[in-house]
Amino acid sequence: MRDEFVRRRAWLDDATFLGLLGAANLIPGPTSTELAMHIGHRRAGRPGLVVAGLAFLLPAVVIVAVLAWLYIELGRRPEIEALLVGIAPVVVAVIAHAGWSIARTAVRTPWHAILLVAIIVAVLGGLPEIAVLLGAGLIGLVAGSATRPGLAGAIALSFASAPAAATVGVVSVPAILVVFLKIGAVLFGSGYVLVALLRSELVDGLGWLTERQLLDAVAVGQATPGPLFSTATFIGYVVGGPIGSVAATIGVFLPAFLAVALSIPILDRLRESLHARAFLDGVNIAAVGLIAVVAGQLALTAAADLLSVAEAAVAFALLAAGVGSGRLVLGGAVIGLIRLAWIPL
User: Fold this and answer.
1) Nearest residue to 196 via CA among 226, 186, 166, 233
2) 76 lies in a domain?
3) Interacting residues of 107 by C-beta distance below 8 A, sequence separation 6+
4) CA dist., res. 75 & res. 202, Å (int)
5) I need a surface site. Which of 51, 79, 187, 240 has the fewest CB within 10 A?
6) What is the C-alpha to C-alpha distance for residues 17 and 27, in angstroms, rounded to an integer?
7) What share of the chain in percent tops pLDDT 90?
8) Quick one: average pLDDT of 127-148?
């Protein structure tokens, strides 16, 4: 976006672009999509906001919906299953690398590290991920800085002992819409936190998906252009058909449109707000914890044998060296087909 709108088209200068990016990071929703909305608003007001947001996400949504249809129709074919088995370790590596990358900037002080450990314990203990995200944001807001570790730690430990909420639901279009609205409304920053919330809500809570189906959904979202949030389109199709796909897409993206529209009048104050940044600091630490837990949980499903473990380790090392995730996903697919030729599924 910077290359397109700052360098080539000169719609924005660098300072404005970075300011809009900072604002997008401070509100819930996919950062890249929200940045597109902000740029659209700068060019053409509120109609531009809507057009830019839709134009940015629709190609990915359409591609993912088509792939979801193919997944339902052909997913049991050995070739397709082999592709997905080969890609799964790469997906785990991508999620783990995302968590590591965020941790390098989010965990800056000893109390940040203490909070991270408490968050991981809380999630493993059964506390809902949404409560963890919001609670960590409040801890960051209350603590304000590394000079308040005692209060932050006490609140974190109280979260760790809180009981997990039970979730029961039936797959229907309204249920799909409500679940994805809830998820879309609390997601900050990295799209990989989406994976943790999807696992909590749809695998553990509602039982709509298996671990393997979640891995397949993330693989499709990772291997296609556009925001990772398009994974919701795939899952909506799997659990509710074409209408379910539309409901999940609307649910996960609508909060972002509303958040951008509501934040525009207070954009400058939001970017300069120390309270907003303190809240986001806590959320970012929670994101690291959630990503770490979900990467470990999905690894148990993806690591079918020593070859899968080695594939994940090599993928992580290549990501750290700067290799793009798209190439690695393609490489994982090739490995899956080679495995099929040697060891039929």
Assistant:
1) 186
2) no
3) 113, 116, 285, 288
4) 20
5) 79
6) 16
7) 18
8) 70
